[in-house]
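Quick note —
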Amino acid sequence: MDELFFADVHVHPNLKSAYSGYPKPQRNMWEFIDHPVPEGKAARYAYNNSPNVAKYSQTNLYALAEGNVRVPTISLYPLEKGFMDIRNLPKLLTNKKSRIEMMQVVTGNEISSIEYLRDTNDYFKILQFEYNYVSSNQGYSPNKKYHFKLVNSYYSLIDQLSKPNTLAGVLSIEGAHSLFDEAMLSGKLSPTEMKKKMEEHVGIIKSWDVHPFSINLCHHFYNHLAGHSRSFWGLVRKGFLNQNEGLGRGLNGLGIKTMKELLSKNNGPRIHVDIKHMSVKSRKELYNWIRSYNYISNNDKIPIIASHAGVNGFKTMNASIATPDHEKKSKNHVFNRWSINLSDEEIRIIHETGGLIGLMLDKHKLGGEKFHSTIANITDERKLKDEYLKIFLDNVFQIVHAVGHPSAWDIICIGSDLDGGIQHFDFYDKASTFPQLYADLIEYLERTSYQKKLWYGETAETLIRKIMQTNVMNFYEKHF
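Predicted structure written out below.
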């Protein structure tokens, strides 16, 4: 398509509004939502001292429309129980009300919803609630200017985009814990019964009117399918939330079964597996399986997706995990060196499969301590903005350098993770800023000729348009 618009392969425009009340949400996906200011002292302190985490909706449908982000991939996410198990808290936070208020600070969800999420033991029920909620928000905006529709194929995507002032939403799921119901979480089912239940639930989501295009096999906590990577840092890592169970493990039998059910075309449309949050060991096992499949089934290649990622600058996967993930690992480095990010070896594997790497707009996940110490000392707004543009482009150029071929530019896109509780980039904190981000990236490259050898003769405008639109559209044309 000749028209300029933007695509983002990982956003959460649904979460704040879906959980604005339980059992009935009080808000819709078009509304701008501010997080309520908590009453408790500890929660209010956390609210006032976490300026890098947005306390407002970043991707409500109006923000997407104003930012011309016409193709958002909307991620459904039933909140994991691990977030409710806050440990090592001072006495001030030991009561239930204080803990719920802390969750409200982070998520913006209403207390009634947090209480429900805390008390329920059925992720699959919550997943279906979220799907039905997002489906119910289809239609015209309250001001009748815009129209939002979920799409279930490239054909329906193009059809929606052919109409003016429209948003075409693609669905994804963050975390395969979402496929577990109360019986599966009870620990009482046999392995055979667990596999049967998983088959049934994968079949259900594939039969939705709009099936998910992709799913993250892991998220922050162990889901008894595959090991995850460490994702929390600072005080959260050291004390408040425990990610240790299952950390770094590989795929187990049920995880392999789930992966195969999702990727199969014999039980409905393929749902692609998103590697973000998987441990290096589980990623290796997935890569090996997909590469073997692609070798045998040359006419039905499966691409590898990393929807909201960063690079770590290590040459190999083994080098990524040679040192445990902690704050010192990224000291004196431009990149975040943790193993949740991609090594050069993985970048080449993703490229080999014709996959897609979505770069986050998260300054912590993209930048190491060298970057953070640099921006901490800058007072000039123009220079500060340049550093944010540069760290994004450093991640881009690391991908291009790792592949060593112009086709590397075809696998890069944006998976911002806005409204996902990230530490967003200053200046680009919401979807409505995408036109400015697009213009600023082009202007920076043209002004500085940064890493021009890796442009491979293309113009700055062509390269940034690939990242912010073309690559996603081409990918969906091939695989959706």
